[in-house]
Amino acid sequence: MRYGYSVLLAVGLLAACSGSPQGLQPQVAAGPEVAVEKTANPGFTRVYTWTIAKRVTDPADALLLAPGQAYRVEYAVDLVGTPTDRDFQVEGTVTIKNTGVGAVVLKAPTDTLSTGEAVHLSCGVDFPYTLAEGASLVCTYSQTLPDGKPRTNTVTVPWGTDGTSFPHTASAEKAFAFQEPSQVVDGSVTVSDPSATPTQATSGVSPEGVITQTHLFERWVRFDACGEYEVENTATFTTHTTGTQGSASATVKVTVPCQGGCTLTQGYWKTHSRYGPAPYDATWAGIGEDTPFYLSGQSHLEVLWTPPAGGNAYYILAHQFIAAQLNVLNGASTTPAVDAALAWADQFFQTYKPSDPLSKAVANQAKGYASTLDAYNNGLAGPVHCSE
């Protein structure tokens, strides 16, 4: 009985030793393996061609000015930059790695684009080429392309282990698209107009890359002698990369009447004194802005700037009277009705102050003559109205 027990124990131990440990898989010997990685970096040049146009925004037509009258002419310069894309290319690397056990032998890789072009790889070695275990081979490429279509770049590497046959292949691919240019030529410009002052600039870019710009300029013009004049203004752009230039001009015709002159409103005269804000009109020197105005206790300019509160007939008449006086001094001819209104107003201002109560008849008469002078100052009676 003791002998039988020993045999059973030995058999059990032998069976236990012959089994695999629980949870472990049998080991499989590793073999050769090749992996490929690829990059593709597209690039292209965008070249801008610019056009320029200039237009007068104020005045809308020819100018009619009195001698010595200053007028602010306003211009707009419009530029358009149209892009042309060229010099398309793609460049990158192909990295071939021996990721298995033992050396492998590589055949020359092939690199192609989805549009059919073959890409030349520069690997720096002769093929077939033996790649040691754990080693890598880096190839580079740079390929010019005829257009900016999106493409996929695919590389294939045949390989084996004996150097005579290449039964295996490894490959990689990379898609790319031409989105932002790698170089921009003449993508910006400088605009100059030596005879005018810039006031504002705006710019925009369309989805197609077209650049539009508008530059605003202003220029004061004046002529002291009567005659016919032309004011030409020229704007020039210069591109920042190549220094290419272009220019455009705009012309304003100006007439300063030699007979009869033209008239200006009281709004013009009160802003063109030596106190501004507009340029000084020397016609004021014939009266003097600070000269007392009759019995008002104010200067001529102070009277012009005083609103006729409550329909005050004194100030309504005074505004048109001062403007008419200045127009006459500036060479504008008059009419008998205007002469009569000026004479009546002169007597009125020698008699009344702004605060004096007026009879209804006198107030209505003052306003009536003010209306006559207002029509004269606006070019509705007598000479034509100057541009303002």
Summary, kept brief:
Helices cover 20% and strands 38% of the residues. The protein is an alpha+beta fold and 388 residues long. It folds into 3 domains: 103 residues, Immunoglobulins (Immunoglobulin-like, Sandwich); 85 residues, no CATH class; 112 residues, no CATH class.
Describe this structure in words.
Keywords: Signal. Residues 1-23 form the signal peptide. Residues 189-206 have a biased composition (Polar residues). Residues 187-206 are annotated as: Disordered. It contains 6 helices and 17 strands. It is of the alpha+beta class and 388 residues long. α4 (313-329) crosses α5 (336-351), α4 packs parallel to α6 (360-377) and α5 crosses α6 (360-377). The protein is rod-shaped and about 125 Å long. Mean pLDDT is 92; it is low at 1-21.
Name its key features.
388 residues; alpha+beta; Immunoglobulin-like; 3 domains; 7-stranded mixed β-sheet; 6-stranded antiparallel β-sheet; 6 helices; 17 strands; 20% helix; disordered N terminus; Lipoprotein; signal
Envelope shape: rod-shaped
The helix/strand class is: alpha+beta
* Number of E-state strands: 17
Overall radius of gyration: 46 Å
| Mean pLDDT value | 92
Main sheet?
7 strands, mixed
Region (Disordered): 187-206
Signal peptide: 1-23
Protein name: Lipoprotein
Biased composition (Polar residues): 189-206
Provide the fold topology:
Elements: H1 2-18, E1 34-38, E2 41-58, E3 63-64, E4 71-98, E5 104-106, E6 110-113, E7 118-119, E8 129-131, E9 136-145, E10 151-160, E11 168-176, E12 183-185, E13 189-192, E14 197-205, E15 211-221, E16 227-239, E17 245-256, H2 266-271, H3 300-304, H4 313-329, H5 336-351, H6 360-377
Helix pairs in contact: 4-5, 4-6, 5-6
Keywords: Signal
Signal peptide: 1-23
Protein name: Lipoprotein
